[in-house]
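New to this. Please check this protein:
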Amino acid sequence: MTNPYQLANEAADELRVRSGVDSYDVAIVLGSGWKEGAAALGAPFAEVATGTLRGFVAPTVVGHAGQILSLKVAAKTVALVSGRVHLYEGNTADQVAHPVRTVIAAGARTVVLTNACGGIDPSVAAGSVVLIRDHINLTATSPMEGAAPPEPYGSRFVDLTDLYSARLRAAARAAAPELTEGVYAGFRGPHYETPAEVAMARTMGATLVGMSTVLEAIAARHMGAEVLGLGLVSNLAAGVAQTPLNHLEVLEAGQQAAGSLGELLARLLPVI
């Protein structure tokens, strides 16, 4: 089998040809609801369907279209990755991490991982964006499983002490002082967490819950990229609020917050 790093390099070469971009500066992975906000950054000069790139699997979740959009923002060449895939769609950890590995192989040294998440802290209202300070991986897997990474990649035993870059978080807070910080607990899904699981996550120190981000963050850090995580609180998690949970409210939260999400990304890109 082709190793995931070779596959990412091959996909990166294809992305360069199709986009006309020799090297990206920043990559932003668009979580549920974030694509509408990213539209405020401007019109892309290239759109590449991820189905044309080696190793990509098609997303099956409403709100995730398989594209990589290229645009210029604040003199930086930015890749917007629209079409995140998840473990719960039947994918492996390597398939989940492949888009991030590809854009890093195509030059991006800064990776912004966005998501829609459930809030555990009732003082953080739905529609708020939270800086991810750290995460708890409850998916029972890792993109570092399997064969050891080949040369010149580092050890599979990657240090995650500064996984969500303190430098980038400080820059983000300076540009957007309204941002608070939280800890993201990544579950496997696709079902929503039970109230007991949310209570467990709270006891462990989490303030946010979701079904993405953690595997991409690990893979990005292993490849030497700096990671910034942004969670849009789309709803309060099970047991925190008594209302039923559904995916439509996740998408609606993104649509309602689209203007502020775009404005936030426009403020952050010049400083990260």
